[in-house]
Design a protein that fits this description.
The structure is a single chain. By secondary structure, the protein is an alpha/beta fold. The protein is elongated and about 100 Å long. The N and C termini lie far apart (about 75 Å). GO terms for molecular function: ligase activity. This is E3 SUMO-protein ligase.
Amino acid sequence: MRAYKDNLVYNPTWKNEYTWMDYDSSQNGMVCMICKVHGKPPVQARGTWVTKPINNWVKAKSLLIQHEKSDWHAAAIERMVMSQSTEEHVNVMEQLEAATAEEKKQNRDIMKKLIRSLYFLVKHHIHHTTTFENLITLQIENGDIIQKSHREKCPHNATYESCTTIVELLSSISNVLEKRIITSLSASPYYSLMADESTDVASQEELLVCARWIEDNKSVEHFLGILHAKEKNAQAIACYPRTFLHSKNICFDKMRGLGFDGTKTMSGHRSGVQIRLRLHAPSFIYVHCRCHKLQLAALNAASEHTVLKRVLVTLLTIWKAFHFSPKKAEKLGEIQAELRLLKSKCRSLVILAGEKHIVVLEEEKSEFLHKVYRPYLQSVIDHINVRMESTELISAMSVFDPRHLPGTEEELSEYGIEHIKTLTDFYSVNKGSM
């Protein structure tokens, strides 16, 4: 009773005099049930008595009187009376709960639309901070009633279309996706890692990291992140993936496969990144990226044929000549237009020339296949065979392929002995001494 008299806490007796008032114990404040359902508070009220409970107990009595005499409280009462005259009487608390549930549903619908719109912009590499609001406006103009109603009724500082909100939404999407990926990766008994260096548009060195693991008895692959590479020596690069995985609580020792390009920094057998990482995860198999190998095989094969070598040099020279000069690029457009016109005229000449022109084309095609195309393909095949020769360890993995199992018990007793020995030698060695 002492606290009630000193106006230090909420006094339940106020409810007897002001029946429209309700005490929200979770927020320790008073709200107006009538205004929350039927009221339209002025902007300067900033949600007081509706979304912002009153908890100034020293001035509580005067605030109750002031609100009861306010114009917008009186207007809310009028709207309540009018609604009761046309509908069945509903308890104020029931109205309040129904309105709150509907309000939550509408907010969820709005957030879903905003997140989908933002995801669309990011997925298609469109500037989201400058385009997001215009995209929402376009959706409203195309008949989106929900977003139109939200923009008209919500306060100016709660449209969820500002740059700050966009960044927060994008960060939330990123956090949810990352959490799902990391949870799945952590649950897998083993995984393999692939990383490659790159330079962004701001000339910043980066290390891109991807992983493959088992999920629901299926192999899945996901991009994990971009790591800023301040230094490019083997010792520094070897620390980046370990530090990254450790920050995500992923056990580095579970790694069973590692893929890099063929540079000495990455694949060096003495002090390369793969050797340094093997000290912390000794059971993984290092694989030189097959895409890099294929590119090198194609380039080496092309360098052996003068015609193709000239073509590559010519294409590179043309690209450099027009890429860095707007004037030359404009001139290139004019040349392309003339070539299109010439092509249409040549098509008419081909029709007039008839079979004679076709014979000439067939002879030129046959000469190209004989002198350039077939030799080049053979060179590519030869370089692929050299560069992509399977390692003894990877070849030994074929012993687990059921398609290679022999058909008789006699053959099965001696099946894959050499392969099993290779795998045993690799996985049974004391890795701690490596």
